[in-house]
Each structure stands twice: as structure tokens, then as C-alpha cells.
Amino acid sequence: MDRFVYAAEHLNWGAGYIILIILYTFLSFMYKEYNQKYFFYFALFLVIFISGTRSIVNYDMENYKIMYENYKSLTVLEIEPGFIFLSWLLNFIAKGPYLLFFTYSFLNVAFVYLGIKNFTERLAFPFFLYLTFPSLFLMSLIGIRQNLAEAIFFYAVSHLFRKDLFKFIVFGILAVFFHYSAIFIFIIVLGVYFLIKGVNFTFSVMLVAASIFIDFLGINKLMLVKFLSFIYPVLPAKYDSYAMLLIAGRAFNLKGFSIYSLILFNALLLLILYFISFFRKTDDKFARYDLIINLLIAGTFYVNIFGSFADVTARLFNYFLFFYIILIPVVLSKFTKYLRITAIYLLAVFSIVWFFSGVYKKIGGIHTPPLIYKNIIINFLRDSRFSDFHD
Description:
Distance between the termini: 41 Å
Number of domains: 1
Shape: globular
Radius of gyration: 21 Å
Order of helices and strands: HHHHHHHHHHHHHHHHHHHH
Helix content: over 70%
Number of strands: 0
Strand content: under 5%
Largest sheet: none
């Protein structure tokens, strides 16, 4: 009950996001109704504009502001070269950090849109899911570096989906330049691409079950410590403290994904596996999604083992979350009659997940939640009017 009261008292923190979802939904339905692409393009513009004009609302964004204004003191051991390069380039135009935030927003949305376009001709619904999955768009408002890397890597995988290995490698490396965590996903994707052909439903279910069993036995902690101890000498300095906490066993109790999130991820995967394996019996076109399904299986195996640990391990699964926004519409395309009703239902479900994921949660007694939105233009106009009134 306290959380509902707290949410009601601070509804303005999520109002921008709610308005954005309503506008996007309306415009994308117009796009479907009149088959005019400019409706959808205007919806994309709104997403870029609203997310790109966000205010500094927490420590992470304040830290980006400091790094942007002092980029000359940064090294690639502290921060990725992509951030340094953009800071160097954009400082020629503006010294304030808001151009940096807008640029990251534009690049994020652009790569997600282009990736979806490579996967499917149905653009509106996958992008809708991108906006409503709590760990995708919302996280991009704060975790700008990793989320841009995730968007670029999603675009890279869309080329692998089209059998273009060269472009996958090029854009996969580009993703690493914006966040070093992409190195691990890059290796996993190449392994799945070259080593696993086709989808075996029974084996996949057994693999997911085995990952849950590994977590239950506690073997995953030993696996993680051994792995981190092995790669520790080559880790960038920025990740030393995270790795040491995990190696010492002091970070295992830090919050990763909740048990409810893990149940949701596994349930979605099993439903997707069931329906696509069923549809493939009568329609061969579903076989083209084997790579994406296998990547999602690999991601679910990973999150079951390491997702409940510290944020540094849990967040790697966000790279795999993008595959849900492609596969869910693929499954639902067989139920076209109910697609719009299902879209509204999914919006309600993910809004609930978003609400209970910590958006309106007090952190350590501090009244600033981890995911909030305030608009710099609205804040500027409000502060200006208050200043005039005060004078």
C-alpha cells in the first residue's frame, strides 16, 4: 500500500513516459489504419525528442555530465572510446551535456528501428514492445552507454539473421566501443551461430531446467568466481571493483533480477518455443528464426544462472531481451484477429512489471527512484515562470 501512496505522490516522475506511450500507440494505429509511413516516422521523432530532452535526475546522469565536460582527462581504461569520441565531437558544438543525451537517444532509437526493420516488415508492434519492456527503453534514459551498445548489437545481430557475417562483426565491434560488456555477448553469439544449428524443443527445455538446477545447488557462485578470477587481469579498470566484490563473495546478495522477472523470462521463452515448434509443422517460414530462438535460449540459460546476482551480471541479459520484441510478434502473427487486444493486454502487463520493478521504490531511504523522467524544456519554462513571479 505504501508504494501506491508513494507513486501517487510522485506521479509526475512517470507522466512523461505514460504520455509518450499513449502518443506512440495512437500514431502507430494511425500508421496501420491509413498505411502512411509518416505517422510512424512522426512517432519515432516523438520518442527521440521526448527521451532526448530529459533532465539530469540522478547520480549516473550527473556523472555523465562531469565526464562530458572533462572528457580530456578520460582514458579508455576508465570509459569506452565511443563515449570519449562523442564527447570530443559534441564539445565543438555545445559544452553542456544535453546534446550528448540527445545524441545517445537518437542513436539508440535509430539502431533499434533499423534492427527491427532488418528482422521484419511489421515495425510498429516490435517497437511498442521495446518501449514497454522495463529494461530496454526506460533504462536507456539513464544507462546511456550500455543501452546504446545493446541497440547497436541488436542491429548487428539483425545482419547475422540475414546471413551477413561481415556486417555483424563490424557493428558488433562498434557496440564494444560503446560498452565493454558487449565483448561477452559478441563471443556468445558467435558460438551459437557456428556451433548450434536448428532448434530442439526437448533439449532446450532440459537445458533451461539444468540452469535452474545449477542455481538451486549454488554451483553458479563457484562458476562465476572462477571465471572472474581468470579474466580479472585483463578487465578494464572500471570493472575492477565490481569483479572484486563478486570474487570476494560480497556482491552475491546485491539485487539482480527478481524471482518474478526470472519466472516471466522463462515462461515467455517456453511459450515461444512451444508455439514456434508447433507452427513449424505446417509452415517452414518459422525455421528462419532458429538463430534468434537459440540466442534467447542461451540468454535464458545465462540469466537463470547469474541473473539473480549483482547488477553487473544481471544487466548482461538485457542484450538478449531485444529478441523477445521480435519473437513475440512472430508468434502473435498467427492470431492476427486478436493482435490489437493482445497489444493492449501486453501494455497492461508490462506497465505492472514496470511499476513494481523499482520505478517508484525508495532506495536506501532516499526518495529518488532509479528510473524517472523529467523534461529539461518543461523544467526550464517552469523555473523561468517561477523566477519571473518571484521577482
